[in-house]
Structure prediction request, 450 residues.
Amino acid sequence: MRSGWLFRPPTRSIYHPNSVNPSETASRTHQPALAGQPESPLNMAVVRAEFPILDQQVHGHRLVYLDSAASSQRPAVVIRTIAEYYAKDHANVHRGAYELSVRATRRYEAARGKVARFLGAGRADEVVFTRSTTESINLVSMAWGRANLGPGDVVVVSEMEHHSNLVPWQMVCEMTGAEIKAIGVTDDQCLDLDHFDALLSEGNVRLVATGHVSNAVGTIHPVEEIARRAHGVGALYLIDGAQSAPQLPIDVRAIGGDVDTFSGHKACGPTGIGALWARRDLLESMPPYQGGGEMIEEVRIERSTYAPVPHKFEAGTPNIAGAIGLGAAVDFLQSFGLETIHAHEKRIARLVLERLADEFKAITLYGPAPEVARGGVVAFTLADIHPHDLATILDHEGVAIRAGHHCCQPLMRRLGVAATARASFYLYNAEDDLEALVGGLHRAQELFGI
Ligand SMILES: Cc1ncc(COP(=O)(O)O)c(C=O)c1O
Prediction:
């Protein structure tokens, strides 16, 4: 293991991580071409050096981490930022008149500004810190849904949603008497936009909620077009950005949705912190989700008035260190550039899809073809080997993948499978990780006599 990384002097200021000098940027984003392959825009040695956890052996093999769609790893700068915050600046925010509290508040609010810029939001007060994508969607479904939905109203989701963008809508529909309808999935595992139009034309659609990138099969959905069609019938559009914010440049204003969400832990940030962006007028019109300290203006025994947004939605002591860590994470991602990260992921996903199709006759690959917009997730089944067995065999080779329904049971039903194996590639994955995956799958075939 590398030692001394936690407190090593940062190569750039943790408070101003965008101040990377041009020669450093060039070295971070250039990698020599492999014979016959287009080159990755990222320099893998430089990227991997930022992730201390990758520098270890598992079951006697180099750790190959291919489960970033579930949770990414953290760069040292994020870990260091959190440790340093606790070591130097911690106090509760928005309360104290003393120096430490002022510093903590300044850092917490600076992180909000960083997340707002990361999302292309016009204003920092359109960003609410939450626990995660799951909590962000529950916040909107409960705060907006209970106040605005009633019998006869329709919420449109899709058959490809993560349960986090399905179950909260089912719950609020049950409470309010509204109905839930789902956009179907085409045979090439894209959203069926003709079916979407048909659902919109049935009337009474108040809100559309879809993912941006599928965590199960990697499809990138045409969110701008979905926003346009949803608004055409006067519906709001909520985007579950859990898988898009980590790997695509996001500009919420250009996309044109009403709400976007993401989780820190999938974007190189801490667990337990996420963000909700919504248009300011929408946030202002929504009642609070939870009551408590920090979210009030004036409290009397009978009733209270609430703080302005975003604080109205941040009841209680927030995850201060998490927010500050998330600020460091988005700075880190932006220091490479989200365009660059996406180009790297597109390239590696294409290599993986082509190699697995060439190498394994008995493999079934899920998700759209590499030419179609897709992210760094590759889902597959191999002959009749159970995906959990595949994951266990690969683990013994040091390769971490995920197996199961990926919190997308309706999609699994549509695909006619109970589970798939899923390898998800991120900025720190490259060809050597693909080779390890291929080697592990050969081992699985040997063990199962295929
Ligand atoms: C598309 C999608 N939405 C929502 C979630 C939920 O994220 P979290 O568990 O961080 O709330 C996930 C997590 O895998 C996801 O992939």
User: Anything to note?
Assistant: Residues 70, 132-134, 162, 164-165, 211, 215, 240, 242-243, 263 surround pyridoxal-5'-phosphate (CB under 6 Å). DSSP finds 15 helices and 17 strands in the chain. Residues 1-26, 31-35 have pLDDT under 50 and may be disordered. The longest strand covers residues 205-211.
